[in-house]
Design goal:
The complex is a heterodimer of chains A (360) and B (451).
Chain A: E1 6-11, E2 14-19, H1 24-31, E3 57-62, E4 75-76, E5 86-89, H2 94-109, H3 125-133, E6 156-158, H4 168-176, E7 182-185, E8 192-195, H5 208-212, E9 218-220, E10 233-238, E11 247-253, E12 256-262, H6 276-281, E13 289-293, E14 296-297, E15 310-311, H7 317-321, H8 331-334, H9 353-356
Parallel strand pairs in A: 1-5, 14-15
Antiparallel strand pairs in A: 1-2, 3-4, 3-5, 6-9, 7-8, 10-11, 10-13, 11-12
Helix pairs in contact in A: 2-3
Chain B: H1 18-23, H2 28-35, H3 38-48, H4 60-65, E1 75-81, H5 90-97, H6 99-113, E2 115-122, H7 129-142, E3 158-163, H8 173-180, E4 204-208, H9 209-221, H10 223-228, E5 230-231, E6 234-235, E7 238-244, E8 250-254, H11 260-265, E9 279-283, E10 292-293, H12 294-298, H13 310-313, H14 317-320, E11 328-333, H15 338-352, H16 358-375, H17 381-394, H18 402-426, H19 430-433
Helix pairs in contact in B: 2-6, 2-9, 3-6, 5-6, 6-9, 15-16, 15-18, 16-17, 16-18, 17-18
The chains are: A alpha+beta (360), B alpha/beta (451).
Chain lengths: 360, 451
């Protein structure tokens, strides 16, 4: 194959070189950190996904080297490919920040906010999105939309009120299974994910819709109300599975396996899809060969407590603003608390003031 | 009398049928076109300056020249007859009473674009029109205008009528394509544009009914002659479907040189407003374009007379202008309530949103609920600013133009009729019994002297 041409693209003052045909979002993911737009519907493993939630909108201030005109509207970065010399503004554009805030408000408009009883809480993309980009309160004063509860089988529970219509589960069923039983019924704000006449979702790989769902609309019935996700510890494990790769993540508490999911990468996307057998039926430690603690993003609530395998996103703010950020106050100059050389995760048991006393 | 190109034989008995149409010069353009090369026809359309009549006003010749022509891949012409814009009914008139003009236009355009299978996507509510069109297609076929080897040119063409199921969103070209393929009518992400990958991933041109029909006079009189009619970039004639508080609602062909005042008040066109009432407001181009108060409708912000054409209508941008859009001309007299009207439109867009992208799916319903509160005397002053903020966050942030179409009328109503909204909020009881009336909406606008 011939060498693919490389395009230079500048996102928030950081220039990267990417192969032609890369989307702006994927180029931004190569940089990482704050400049990566959030994505609620785009899923790199699912063809044709993206463009629907509008959270990844960015401003293109320069189209390309050849045609430097800016694009008139904000564009969905997940579906727009980069051009050579393109300049993109994400967190440096007030227009983008404003539009994103609007989108978060729209997404939460009819969301029930039942996080206290939602199994997705703690690993929910919508929670993270609203925390990072949303407003503190809604301006919506009307009754929220509700749907009739639908039973879609013994393993997967569907909460349509929580759905944000990302279409990921539809693409998953289309691309992983040979027959899709569920889809979008109705139109507009009463559109819903549903099966035609109460069918149950039944396919070896259909359990993956739980993993791709960014919110708590599709959750695991075998894990329903068993535990909060942040109390369980993620552990990578594998087994010889005749149907799938068998590489999974176990969510354990002590010796007990509470839940089995696919392994997810730093963008919350499944690395390898797993089968229902692994997901729903192998819930004992003896079924698995345990590899060790999973690497979890440090920003995730799952990384709370004394979790060791955390991964820090790159800090790029200095490149975005073109200088080292100036701290208003260096806490270490006036206080011994939070001494930088002492890592909280390395302290045995709860942190105590004794731990911070100078040890000489 | 203005120039009539499309509705020239409007009064001829039996023009709906082949014999009468042929006797009055029908299919002469097709004969002429088949002696030309496809590239020449495209060139002729380019010269004519014809702009898409569906609403956006994109130059048709340019659209045609964008069509990709890869070897061995069929190309398609799809005619957008999903005329669902509230207030617009010009395409219906053309298809119902002049089906052969439309079929002839389709034939010439198919030949120019190399489309052997041409589709008419017609909205589901026009239940009786597919029969008329299919009859016309059969007549044309019997007389050798469709089918194999037309006029010995070696060009084959079939026209199929496809009925939609009655969704406004399917008038958006990519949603129309999806629906034509038999899928759910959700707009596609662009790029790729239909000119590269349209129906069944083949290069496709989607044109409005009136645009296609206008190709016939262009070929008949030539692109240069056609371009002489009208002013500036608004060439040729345009069908306007006038409705609302006027004496003579109906479809009129105008040559885009007349003023708005003439169009509303002259006896040749709308014939004035009934019962001697005064003009309050008007939506000049179908429900999704900004509404204008009487004073800005008749004169631009610069004090010039507003004409019925693309440029003059959009003079002043959205701040003091509007758009000619699809030509759905809705007139409101002094007894109409702008708040109620805006609420009705918001309900329409809420109902017709496809639900694919979040701002439109959630925002349209929100705006409708707020407007309903204001209309029924339960509104708050802050609701008006909230509405403004919501429409601002929908506009331009959606996949397809439905988001804009939902946002623009509300933005314009608040921009020009804020007093009326505030009156509704401040006088909740009174607003249930009477309308705000004309107020100052017809007062002459002070024009700042230019230096």
């Amino acid at each position: 194959m011939s060498e693919q041409p490389k395009f230079k693209v500048t996102i928030d003052n950081i220039t990267v070189e990417v192969p032609a045909g890369t989307t702006i979002l994927n180029a931004a993911r190569m940089i990482g950190g704050e400049v990566t737009p959030p994505a609620m519907c785009y899923y790199s493993k699912l063809k044709d996904s993206g463009g629907k939630c509008r959270t990844c909108l960015v401003e293109v201030s320069k189209g390309s080297e050849k045609d430097p005109r800016p694009m008139p509207k904000l564009v969905a970065s997940c579906r727009t490919t980069v051009m050579d010399g393109m300049e993109v503004k994400n967190i440096t554009s007030p227009k983008v920040i404003d539009a994103r805030k609007g989108v978060v408000e729209f997404l939460l408009l009819n969301h029930p906010l039942d996080c206290p009883v939602c199994d997705q809480a703690g690993e929910c993309d919508l929670q993270n999105l609203s925390y990072e980009h949303g407003a503190e309160a809604t301006r919506y004063e009307f009754k929220r939309r509700t749907f009739e509860k639908e039973d879609i089988g013994p393993y997967i529970s569907l909460h349509m009120t929580r759905c944000i219509m990302c279409f990921r589960c539809v693409y998953t069923a289309d691309q992983l299974t040979d027959k899709r039983e569920h889809g979008i019924l109705e139109r507009g704000d009463h559109a819903q994910i549903s099966t035609m006449l109460n069918k149950s979702l039944d396919h070896d790989f259909i359990g993956n819709v739980i993993d791709v769902c960014p919110v708590g609309a599709l959750t695991d019935k075998t894990f329903r109300f068993k535990n909060r996700v942040w109390f369980t510890k993620p552990v990578d494990a594998h087994r010889d599975c005749p149907t799938c790769s068998g590489k999974v993540r176990l969510w354990m508490r002590g010796e007990e396996v509470f839940r089995v999911t696919a392994r997810k990468d730093q963008w919350g996307e499944v690395e390898e899809f797993i089968c229902n057998e692994c997901r729903f039926h192998k819930k004992e430690t003896k079924d698995w060969v345990i590899e060790g603690p999973s690497v979890i993003a440090r920003s995730s609530v799952i990384a709370q407590g004394h979790y060791v395998g955390t991964m820090k996103p790159p800090v790029v703010i200095d490149k975005v603003i073109g200088k080292e950020p100036k701290f208003l106050l260096d806490i270490h100059s006036i206080s011994d608390v939070n001494r930088p050389e002492i890592h909280l995760s390395e302290i045995e048991g709860p942190a105590h003031s004794d731990d911070f006393k100078a040890k000489s | 009398m203005g120039i009539k190109l499309l509705l020239e034989h409007d009064k001829v008995e039996g023009i709906r049928y082949y014999d009468a149409y042929r006797k009055h010069g029908g299919y002469r353009a097709a004969e002429k076109a088949f002696k030309m090369s496809p590239a020449d026809i495209v060139e002729e359309v380019k010269k004519s300056g014809l702009r898409g009549r569906g609403g956006a006003g994109f130059p048709t010749g340019m659209k045609w020249s964008f069509l990709a022509k890869p070897e061995g891949v069929p190309r398609h012409l799809v005619c957008n007859a999903d005329e669902s814009e509230p207030g617009t009914f010009k395409d219906r008139y053309l298809m119902e009473f002049h089906p052969h003009l439309f079929i002839e236009g389709l034939l010439i355009s198919s030949f120019a674009l190399g489309s052997n299978a041409t589709y008419i996507y017609i909205r589901g509510e026009y239940a009786w029109i597919p029969d008329i069109l299919e009859q016309a297609i059969a007549e044309a076929k019997n007389n050798g205008w469709l089918g194999k080897n037309i006029l010995g040119s070696g060009f084959d063409c079939e026209i199929y009528v496809h009925r939609g199921a009655g969704a406004y969103i399917c008038g958006e070209e990519t949603a129309l394509i999806e629906s034509l393929e038999g899928k759910r009518g959700n707009p596609r992400m662009k790029p790729p544009f239909p000119a590269i990958q349209g129906v069944w991933m083949r290069p496709t041109v989607v044109n409005n009914v009136e645009t296609i029909a206008a190709v016939v006079p262009i070929i008949n009189i030539g692109g240069d002659e056609y371009a002489k009619i009208g002013i500036g970039k608004s060439t040729g004639t345009k069908l306007m479907s006038a409705c609302g508080n006027i004496n003579k609602p109906g479809v009129y062909e105008i040559d885009m040189t007349i003023s708005v005042e003439e169009f509303i008040f002259s006896d040749e066109y709308c014939g004035g407003i009934p019962k001697g009432k005064k003009l309050k407001a008007c939506i000049p181009g179908g429900s999704s374009v900004p509404i204008l108060p009487a004073n800005l409708l008749l004169k631009t912000a610069k004090g010039e007379t507003r004409l019925m054409n693309y440029e003059s209508m959009s003079d002043g941008g959205f701040v003091s202008g509007s758009m000619i859009g699809s030509g759905g001309f809705e007139v409101f007299d002094e007894d109409q309530c702008v708040v109620r009207h805006t609420m009705t439109l918001a309900r329409f867009y809420n109902h017709e949103s496809c639900g694919q992208c979040s701002p439109c799916r959630e925002g349209t319903g929100w705006m409708y609920k707020i407007l309903k509160n204001i209309e029924y005397g339960k509104g708050k002053m802050s609701d008006i600013d909230l509405l403004w903020d919501i429409q601002r966050k929908i506009e331009g942030n959606t996949i397809c133009p439905l988001g804009d179409a939902a946002a623009w009328p509300i933005a314009a109503a608040i921009r020009h009729f804020r007093d009326e909204f505030e009156w509704h909020v401040l006088n909740p009881d009174e607003s249930q019994k009477r309308n705000y009336g004309l107020a100052h909406y017809a007062d002459p606008i002070h024009v700042a002297a230019t230096a």
